[in-house]
Every structure is written in structure tokens, then in C-alpha cells.
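Lab meeting minutes (informal)
Scribe: AK
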Amino acid sequence: MPVLYAVAALLVMQLAGEWIVRVVGLPVPGALVGLLLLFLALLVLGRLPTGLRQTADHVLPHLMFLFIPAVAGVTLHFERLEQEWLPFVLACTVGTAITVAVTAATFCWVLKRTQKD
């Protein structure tokens, strides 16, 4: 039953993020805002609930399946990629570099925080 509550909480956070993006008109995905809301809720709670941990343990190994629609969408636009390949390559490269840097910084932050305890 805790896993069901965790999935419901994830969906509620995503819906709240989508709602905030539409109401405020933010130029970011609603899922990202929902993820930030989840992060803030976990910071306030101060711990990771067991059901959420179990759910994440089952979902994370299969996360790559969520990228299949995006990759399929890119393959539909090969003509446009031929014309605009440089901005596409730059966006992919810079986006990956930023993601790696933020992930490394987050890892270091979590590592320092857990070593204090």
C-alpha cells in the first residue's frame, strides 16, 4: 500500500507542476516544476518515505524507456536536422555538460551532508 501512496504523490506533484506552469505561464515543463515541488516537500519532511524509496527503486532501472518517444520524434525530422544540425548538436552537448555538472554538484552535496551525520 505505501507504493500506491507514493505513485499517487508523484502524480499529484506532476499535476500541481502542470497547473502552476499553465496558471503562471512559465516557459518550463510542468513535470520539472512538479519535480521541484517534490524536492521541496522532501526537504520539509526531512526524510524519504519508504514507499517512495521502493517506488523509485522499481522505476529508475526502466527510466530509459521514457526517452523512446523523444528519439522517435527526432527521427521524424531528419530534413530539419540536416538544415539546423549545429544548434541541435550544441544544445545536446551543452545540455549534457550542464546535466553532468549539476549531477556531480548534487552528488558532492549529498555526500558531504551524509558524512556529517
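Next up, CB showed the second protein from the same session:
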Amino acid sequence: FGTNRVGVAGHLEGGQGTGDTPAVSTCGSGAALATGSTDTAGKITVGTSASNACTLTFGTAFTTAPFCVVQNLTTGAAANVYAPGTASIIWSSALADSTVLHYHCIGLSGA
């Protein structure tokens, strides 16, 4: 399947080209994106100093805004996504230090 995989053994799997890793910002000081995170799915750990917003900037912009779900794995609550765009998603929720978030974004085929 190469670096831009669609699926392996029947599972949907996001792939990235070299240099296409997403970036996290405004998510507390020292926020971290888990190794292997892609534009399609990943895990973010909020940094120190609680945050009320996070931004994930895609490594490669989508043609149209993708459908995204962000889940707070620490509390189990959904994280409210207010601004999904082609280049990033921005959400706002009260986030304590070291909160772990999981995101999943899917774009429309050919859009």
C-alpha cells in the first residue's frame, strides 16, 4: 500500500508522506502529539497549564473540510469541535493538565 495507505487487513489506516506530520498548538505549554499520529487520526496530550482550546494543523490540507471527532480519553467526554477547516481543526473545551485527546478526521472522496 505504500506510505499513503488506505487499509491493511481490512482496517482503515491513515498514511502520511514525509514531512506531512500534523502539529498541535494552543493546547497548554508542552502539548505533545503521539508518535504515529497523522492527519486522519492521532492522540494529543495537553501540556501543563490548563487550556480552553486546542488547534491541530494538518500536515497536508484537505480539499474540503473533513468530518472530525475529538474525544477526551481522560474524562470520556466529547470535545466540542467548533471550527473544522481544510487546514486545521480548532476545538474548545476546558482541558486540565495532561488530558489525553484522540481525534479522527475523514475527508470526502474526490472533494
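CB comment: The CA atoms of residues 71 and 78 lie 5 Å apart.
No objections, moving on.
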